[in-house]
Design brief:
This protein is an alpha/beta fold. The chain has 9 helices and 12 strands. The protein has helices at 28-36, 55-62, 82-95, 111-126, 180-189, 200-216, 263-275, 289-306, 319-322, and strands at 11-15, 41-44, 70-75, 101-104, 146-151, 156-161, 172-176, 192-195, 225-233, 251-253, 256-260, 281-286. The strands form 2 sheets. The protein has an 8-stranded parallel barrel with strand order 1-2-3-4-7-8-9-12, surrounded by 7 helices. The longest helix has 18 residues, at 289-306. The radius of gyration is 19 Å and the shape is globular.
Length: 339
């Protein structure tokens, strides 16, 4: 499926964080609303959501009350064992029937955290949930376990991996690639890279750089989706965007990179950035969760659908299918030419 300007349909995702809300039931309605808009996925547990609930636990609760939308928790990085993260996200992939992803919360605090993420992704790769370098799957061939053997500077993972391979091969991996060090990790391992930038020219240059780096690491650049990431304040209804917040891009505020205006102006910003090949879509964080998510879905998304830029239904059932990413083959599968 292609948009009127010739590019593939754009991708949209939204955060459903609610500051201070620990009741899993409070997240059901926002997730179902996002699903009615046919968004690719929702995220939970972003850096501005603390204190908050266990994102993996909440999204596991949402899996049986949603049918198509992807579920992407932010997983604590530095103090969490890589194998435990892998197993928990694989379980979410099973119970959601192939709709899981995960985002490391590391690449926001500096190079040390980004080095930790690099190590975790490499260990994850040895555990056969990787991407780009041919790392996938959970069983040798169809039945046999394989051995995980990773030794890094911050932790080691050794021993047999006996977990069945998740429905998607490996759940979708999301990396915030805004920081320069994180871009190398994203280019090598991510399925989705997020960029927090203020203008389409900067986004276009960074997207091109990520795709080039992905190719240099042996990946096909089209296996990486690059999404702009910003917070949206749609409290102004149908009014035009405030100066500095319009089609040229959002601006930095105490709330982070922010668009402030109406659903129509946001739809125009998204369309302009996508048409100019600055991004493949957007990940949007509502400033006021209930109000802004409703205006995003019923206003901005509806306008983009009307213009033929965003889908009106889910043609597939897994998150990889929403993102138009193939299910990776396992590197442990024995091919016909093997001896």
């Amino acid at each position: 499926m292609t948009a009127p300007h010739g590019r593939g349909l754009l991708h949209l995702a939204a955060a459903v964080d609610q500051r201070g809300s620990f009741d899993a039931a409070a997240y059901i309605e926002p997730a179902q609303l996002a699903e009615r808009g046919a968004l690719d996925f929702v995220t939970l547990g972003g850096p501005f959501a603390s204190p908050g609930p266990d994102a993996l636990g909440v999204l596991a609760r949402l899996a049986p009350v949603t049918r198509r939308i992807g579920l992407v928790p932010s997983v604590p990085g530095i103090r969490t064992e890589a194998c435990r993260v892998q197993e928990a996200v694989a379980t979410l992939d099973w119970i959601s029937r192939g709709r899981a992803g995960w985002q490391s919360d590391g690449p926001t605090a500096g190079d040390e955290d980004e080095d930790e993420d690099e190590a975790r992704f490499r260990a994850d790769g040895d555990g056969d949930t990787g991407t780009g370098d041919g790392v996938t799957g959970g069983f040798a061939g169809r039945d046999g376990p394989h051995r995980v053997d990773y030794r890094g500077s911050t932790f080691s993972v050794t021993g047999p991996s006996v977990e069945p391979r998740p429905p998607q091969g490996h759940p979708v991996r999301v990396v915030d690639a805004t920081g320069s060090s994180a871009r190398g990790t994203a280019a090598r391992y991510a399925d989705v890279a997020l960029l927090r930038v203020t203008g389409p020219a900067q986004a276009r240059a960074l997207r091109a750089g990520l795709r080039h780096a992905a190719a240099e690491s042996g990946r096909t650049p089209d296996t990486l989706r690059v999404l702009g990431a910003l917070t949206v304040d749609l409290g102004d209804g149908e009014r035009a965007a405030e100066p500095g917040h319009g089609g040229g891009g959002p601006r930095h505020t105490p709330q982070g990179l922010l668009y402030r205006g109406g659903p129509v102006g946001l739809a125009q910003l998204i369309a302009v950035w996508h048409e100019s090949e600055a991004v493949d879509g957007f990940h949007l964080t509502p400033l006021e969760p209930r109000r802004d998510l409703e205006r995003l879905v019923n206003g901005t998304v509806a306008l983009l659908q009307h213009r033929g830029l965003f889908r009106t239904f889910y043609p597939g059932s897994t998150l990889r299918e929403h993102l138009r990413l193939a299910r990776p083959a396992s590197r442990y599968t024995v091919t016909g030419g093997a001896s």
